Structures are given as structure tokens and as C-alpha cells.
Amino acid sequence: MIELDSALVTAYAPDPAGGADRVVRLLGPVSLQLAERRIAIIGANGSGKSTLARLLNGLVLPASGTVRVDDLDTATDGRAVRRRVGFVFTSPDAQIVMPTPLEDVALSLRRLPLSADERDAAARCALARFGLAERAEVPAHALSGGQRQLLALASVLAAEPDVLVCDEPTTLLDLRWRTVVDDLLAGLDQQVIVVTHDLEAAARADRVLVVDDGLVVFDGEPAPAVEHYRALMAAVRA
Amino acid sequence: MTDITKDAGGALPAPAAARASVATDVALVATFAAFIAVCAILPGIPTGSGVPITLQTFAVILSGLVLGWRRGALAVLLYLAIGLAGVPIFAEATGGLGVLAKPSAGYLLAFPLGAALAGLLASPAVRSVGWARYTVLFTAGVFGSFLTIHVGGILGLMARLDLDLGAAVAIDVVYLPGDIVKNAAAAAVAYTLFRAYPDLLRHRR
Amino acid sequence: MSGPLRQPWAGPLGLYHPGDSLLHRCPPGVKLAGLAVAGIAIAVARGPLSAAVAVLLAVATHVVSRVPWHRTSRGVLGTLVTLLLVGAYQWWVRGWAVAAEVVLDVVALVLLATVLTATTRADTLLEVLARVARPLRRVGLSPETFALACGLFLRTVPVLVQTSLEARDAARARGLENNPRAVLVPSAVRMVAHARATGDALAARGLGED
User: Which InterPro entries does its entry note (chain A) (predicted)?
Assistant: First the structure.
């Protein structure tokens, strides 16, 4: 269970006139309780949905207000929170941190009390689950975009988080890989919170949040949420 | 992003202090180390004069200016360690301990000091804006590289090739004009990076 | 070597040449100590004769290592031009004996160090380094962090090569290929974005925080 209480996120931004940096509001104040198994977050580019996702595991900390995961404050118990909340980014390039898939997954397993050989075997097993067994020792940059996203997922899930937050996990993928990743996420036991531009994927969630201009402007069933978002986009165009 | 002027409520709280950002430090250090390697192994940028600019010292100084003296020096040390261990990431795709025996070893060994000094001297950049900030960055880069990399390089030439000071300086002086240009470029890129990522400047260390 | 896909600068092997010679099996610490002793001996011994002996010993080491010559020649050839120019200068100023000593000393040391590099895996050498640097744990540099940074480095080089080639193409598409700024600035901005995203990803995976 993730709870946000009047969480407000600000950041420094350069002054267009060339003066000292200013403080701008990125998101909030937002108050939410997230308990549903499948939650989607939709909204325009720059609306603040990625910031909202990053709040959930303490990658971004609120300037005021609190964010709690199972009663752990992200500001003070960041490490414990991140152990519970896994995070998958849009671009797998930044999150594959080791030269080969095997090393990358093994790195996630470092927290567990395993010998080097056991870790190796567990990593190979995790790769096999995602159809990457053959590619275990190929350089990561030689994998296809879809394979890299699968590897990113494999590495995050190898640490066995309770909640998985995904920030546009399929935006860079073609239709085939998008289906693969969507099906994979749908089949997980964990609570999954997905930021997405894919309205079909959002429609399959239990609950959908619409973010606009740094605020949650709609929160509820998928069908009316998507409707609300479409109306919002149409209003911008008009 | 919402403009502050749209909020009638007045002053916003300052952004939360960065989370324990050891992970970001490691990532920045490793990425800048990789950047130095790429600058050293990529063919240089062609110029009108026909002498290509290789960007190794540019990347070393940029690391110091952008990351600050400690992380900047660590980035260069990581680059040196991996290169000396035998990954071919030094100029002309060489690597290994052999480079330490070469006449140019002094330059290489002085790189971490160059990044550190440039980073230290660039500290006032956080309190200045516009041209003043650029001038601080450029000056820091010039002093950072001349007082360390060129001094180290000259000492290396003297030791390895048994040259006297004058002869070593004569070899070294050829690189000075190019280095001024590279420092100007490093300062310009650092300046742009601080515009793009204002908190980068606040968190130099 | 794990296949042709692995670029030399993108792997943990580096300039290593696999083999099972005496030198390949020798512990890296011993080899490093040997190289240090050789470096001191070459610096202390004066005269062209001792320098020639040093080169002969280096060549003998090379033969024992059974590493093909073409694997090590690039490192030596790279400095040859500088060496010949300086050799000529020294000959002119201080006579042939000094010139020969200077040139042969450098060749011997470069050769020895290159053989060490070719017979020792890069990751093994980095492990030795991490062990030597263990006292630095007290200032927050643990061997684990060092290993993580090394892995991250090897992973990031191909990413940055890709980014800079794209920036170069983009500059060319705009007719700005002779403007270094049009290449450098976007490359650097994307590099920092990449580093911060990587930092976020590391933190999200609970890495690098200990």
C-alpha cells in the first residue's frame, strides 16, 4: 500500500532572463492511496506523471508532504522502500548497468546470501524465464531494443520487489515487443503501477489516474478516465 | 513544468535535498570516465586547418569543471585504472601498463590532478551568472591544465627521454594553442550543462 | 574471447591474449612486482650496453609468453616516431651512446609492460587494484563500488560512442559538420541525461547506496 499525503515536488529551473535559478512546481500537492493490483497513470508529455512515478519509490522526494510505502517514509527509509518497490524505466539503456545480461542480473542478486556460483545459476534461471538464456553473455549493447527492455525487467524482478512501477515501459518498443512486455506485466503476481501513453493498456487497469499540469485531475475507472484524458487533449488543440 | 507565476500561493518550498545520491555519483563518475575514453578513441573532429582536434584533455578538464574536484579526479582515476589494466582506451586505442613506459606518461599521470585543480578553481561558478560564470570556468580550465598536465608532461619527457628542461618545454609548447581552444570548448560545454541541469552546479563536490 | 561481437574496448579482456604459457599462469602480483623491479633496474643502469641487454631480456620474455608479435607491436610502434625524433636530437646534442640508451630503455620497458598486459586479463588486474585500494574503504570507496563503476564504465562506452555518432550525424544533416559545438553540446547534454538516468536506475535497484 502506497500513500501520498499532500506531496509537493519542486525543482530549480534556469531563469530565461539569465538571472539566478528559480524554484518551479513539478507536481502536487497530491494525496492518494494506491492499493489496487493494476494501476495506470496517463497524461500529456510534461504533465508530471513521471515525477509521480518516481515519488513512489523515493527516486524523487517531496519538498513538502509525505510519501509512505507500507508505512515506510521514502524520505527517511529510501533503501527499504526501493527494496519493496521495483522500477522499470522507458529506456533500458540507462538501467542496464553491466556489460553483459548475466552480470547485470547477477548484480541485482548481490543482496541475497548466495555464493558466486549460485548467483550465476539464479541469474541464468531469471534470464531463461524471459527468453534470454541464449543471450546471457552477449554484450548488452548488441541486444535488440525489445530484448534490452526484457533484460531490464528481468534484472528488476530478480530482486523480487512487492510492487513494480513502470515509467512508459513500452514507448520505445514495436508492436510485437509491446505485446510481449504487456503480457509479461499482466502475468505478474506483484502490484503493478504503469505510466503509459498506450490507452488500450490503460483500459485494462483496475484504476486509472489522469495527470495534468502537475495535478491528478481524474482518478477512477478506466473508461471514464480515458474519456477525460481525450477531452483534455481535445481542449488543448482547440 | 509549471511556472511559479501561475501559482497565486506565493513562495514554493525549495526542492528536497537530493536523496543519498551515492548511486548518482557512481553513475556520473563512470559516465565521465567513459566519456574521456570515447574522446580518446574516436577519431578527432576535423577542422578547417586540417589538424584534427582530439578531445582527451577536453574531456578531462570538463570532468573537473562539471563534477567538482573530487568526483572529477575519481572519474579520471577510473579511466586510468581501466586503461592501465589493459583495455585499449588511451589515445590511438592503446592501453596497458606499456603506456607508463612511454615518453607521454607524464601527461597521462597528471590528468587526475588537472581535473581536480580545474574543479577546485571552478567553485566560484555557482555564485556567478552569464559571462562571469563562463570566465570562471575558462580560467579554471586553463590554470587547471597548464599547472598540472603540462608540468607533468614536461617532467615525464625529461625523465623518459633524458631531455633538459628547455628541450622538453619546446616539445610541450606545441600543444599549448590547441589546449586553449579545448579549454574554451570545455568551459562552453560546462556552461551549457549547468544551464540544462541547474542542480548539477549545486551538487559539485 | 567470447565471440566477434565483443569490441575490444567493450569487454573485460582488453588487450589480453589467451594462452597457457608460464607468464599466463604466473600470479598477477608477481608479474607486477617483476615489472616494477625491471623499471627501477632500467632507470638505474646507465649506458647503451645495459639498455641493449634490457631489450634482449624483454624480447626473451615476449618469446616465453608465446603472444603473437602483432598483438604487442601496435603499442611499441605508436611511440617509435617520437623515439626516433628524440633519438636523433640526443645523438646530435649528446652523442650516439645517450641516444641509444634513451631509445632502447623506453622500447624495453614498453615491451615488458605490454607483455604483462597481454598475459593478464584486465578484470584480474582490476581485482588486484581493488585489493590494493582496500584501505580506501574508510573514505567511502569500497571494492564493490569500484567493481560497479568498472562494469558501468564498460557498459557506458558503447552507449556514448552511439550517442556521439548520432550527434555527428545530426550535425551533418543540418550542414554543421565543421562546427564542433553542434556535436559536442548535444553529446554532452545527452551524456549527463544518461548518467542521471543510470544513477536513478542504480538507486531504484538498491545499488551503489552502501
Answer: AAA+_ATPase, ABC_transporter-like_ATP-bd, ABC_transporter-like_CS, ABC_transpr_CbiO/EcfA_su, ECF_ABC_transporter_ATP-bd, P-loop_NTPase
From the list B4, B17, B129, the residue facing A23 with the nearest CB is: B4
Among C102, C120, C198, the residue with its CB nearest the CB of B86 is: C120
Is B12 in contact with A19 (Cβ distance < 8 A)?
Answer: no
- Between chain A and chain B, the number of residue pairs with CB atoms below 8 A apart is 62
- Pick from B2, B15, B198: CB nearest A63: B15
Q: How far apart are CA B13 and CA B157, in angstroms?
A: 55
Q: Tell whether B189 is covered by a domain.
A: yes
Q: Considering only the C-alpha atoms of chain A, give the largest distance between any 2 of them, rounded to a whole number of Å.
A: 61
- Chain A positions in Cβ-Cβ contact with residue B14 (cut-off 8 Å): 10, 23, 63
Q: pLDDT tens, A15-45?
A: 777 677 788 899 979 999 999 999 999 998 8
Separation CA A158–CA A106 (nearest Å): 9
Largest interatomic CA distance in chain B: 72
| Pairing assessment for the beta strands A64-69 and A22-34 based on DSSP bridges | unpaired
Taking contacts as CB-CB distances below 8 angstroms, the residues of chain C near A119 are none
3-class SS of residue A24: strand
Give the total number of structural domains in chain C.
2
What is the number of structural domains in chain B? 1
Of the residues C81, C100, C132, the one at which a domain ends: C132
- Asked whether residue B161 is assigned to any structural domain, the reply reads yes
Pull the grid cell for residue A151: 533484460
| C145 in contact with A, Cβ within 8 Å | no
Residue A86 and residue C204 in contact, taking contact as beta carbons nearer than 8 Å: yes
pTM of the shown model: 0.82
Q: What is the pLDDT along chain B (205 residues), one digit of tens a residue?
A: 444 444 434 578 888 765 557 888 999 999 999 999 888 876 665 554 444 556 889 999 999 999 999 999 999 999 998 888 877 788 766 777 878 888 888 999 999 999 999 999 999 988 888 899 999 999 999 999 999 999 999 999 898 888 889 888 988 888 888 889 899 999 999 999 998 888 888 778 7
Range of the domain at C148: 138-204
ipTM for the predicted complex? 0.85
Q: Cβ contact (<8 Å) for A98 and C152? A: yes
Grid coordinates representing B2 are 509549471
Q: Domain range holding B136?
A: 22-198
Please answer yes or no on whether B89 and C101 come within 8 Å at the CB atom.
no
- Chain C hits for B26, CB-CB cut-off 8 Å, are 145, 148-149, 152, 199, 202, 208
Q: Which pairing describes strands A64-69 and A2-13: parallel, antiparallel, or unpaired? A: antiparallel
Query: In Å, how far is A21's CA from the nearest CA of chain B?
Result: 7
**Are C185 and C117 in the same domain?**
no
Using alpha carbons, select from B186, B180, B66, B70 the residue that is nearest to residue B126: B66
What is the rounded (10 degree) CA torsion for B95, B98, B100, B103?
-100
Q: Are B115 and B60 in contact (CB under 8 A)?
A: yes
For residue A30, the cross-strand partners are A7
* Spatial distance between the Cα atoms of A101 and A97, rounded to a whole number of angstroms: 9
Is B7 inside a domain boundary?
no
Give me the residues of C, 170-199, that contact B with CB < 8 A. Answer: 178, 180-181, 183-185, 188-189, 191-192, 194-196, 198-199
User: Which residues in chain C are closer than 8 Å to A53, comparing Cβ atoms?
Assistant: none
C209 domain-assigned: no
Distance between CA B130 and CA C210 in Å, rounded? 38
Domain membership of residue B4 (yes or no) is no
Which grid coordinates belong to A18? 539569465
Contact between chains at B198 and A23 (C-beta distance less than 8 A): no
